[in-house]
Specification:
Layout (H helix, E strand, L loop, with lengths): L1 H19 L4 E8 L5 E5 L2 E5 L3 E8 L1 E7 L2 E7 L6 E3 L6 E9 L8 H10 L2 E7 L2 E7 L1 E4 L3 E3 L24 E9 H9 L7 E2 L26 H17 L4 H11 L2 H17 L5 H10 L10 E4 L1
Amino acid sequence: MKQIKFFLIILISILTLVACSKPDSVEHWIDNPTDKEITLNIDDNQLTIPAKSGIKYKIGYGKHTLSYNNESINFVVKPSKREGFINPTQSNYVFYKLIYIDKSNKIATDSFIDGLEKDIQYKTQVIVNGELQVIEVPFKVVNDLFIEKDTYAWDYFLDEDLPTTITLRDNVKDIKAKLFRESDFLKYIKKDGIDQQISFPSNRKKFNEFPKTIIPTIDLDTIKCPEGRVDVEKKIAAWNKIFNLSGSDFAEEYDNLTSIKSAVAERDLENKCYQDYNEDKSYKEAIEKIQETYTHKSYLNFFVIE
């Protein structure tokens, strides 16, 4: 009996450790679509990526430095449920949409198909036979340093083929998206009989030209509500502190700052400050400035910082 109890104590301890343990890093793809091997650094780790290939690399949550081609940039990796990958060469990729349709279905009239095709058109810069044109096509060119699935919702990644047939979602039509390396996309469209010389302009930025996420400066004296003033001061301090955290510490603090619980507390304090201080909105305005820092980044894996 003592042995059984001892075993149960050990088992409970292990389960508790597993339950309490939070991820402190995530594996990301780093791609090199060029014809030559490249070398880059993330923090103090040198990475070599073969030509027309990529690697999976585990990156801890928090602040990091990417160095490539004699340039450096600071960025934050945060917890996210969607994929993303790093494009250090800022090469062109193509986000392409394809319609799958059952033409035997009576709904699939010519006007129905035309409407679907219009819905997936993008105005895209394309160099056709040496001439730059802006044309409407079912693809867009992407050359972000950090390419996010939240922004480009692909169904098929770089080395996954678009299927010739699929099971249609509503028995009539479906639209699937694939992310191509530029050279792979040009090969793909040549199979469809396109014989013009097609290429895309390069829009590479210098690393120091990227917009950075900066915690706003707020004059606390403009906030009439004392409780609101204290809350804003604490949140600014917490956001400035978070960029110096790493791993599970970063994840925990980030989750606290962006949680529903935090949002509810802010809303309740907004109402209190508004009612107690003659419909004053200074606390609300300050909180909204802080929220702009992260609201549109909630699903992103990366953002650039100073």
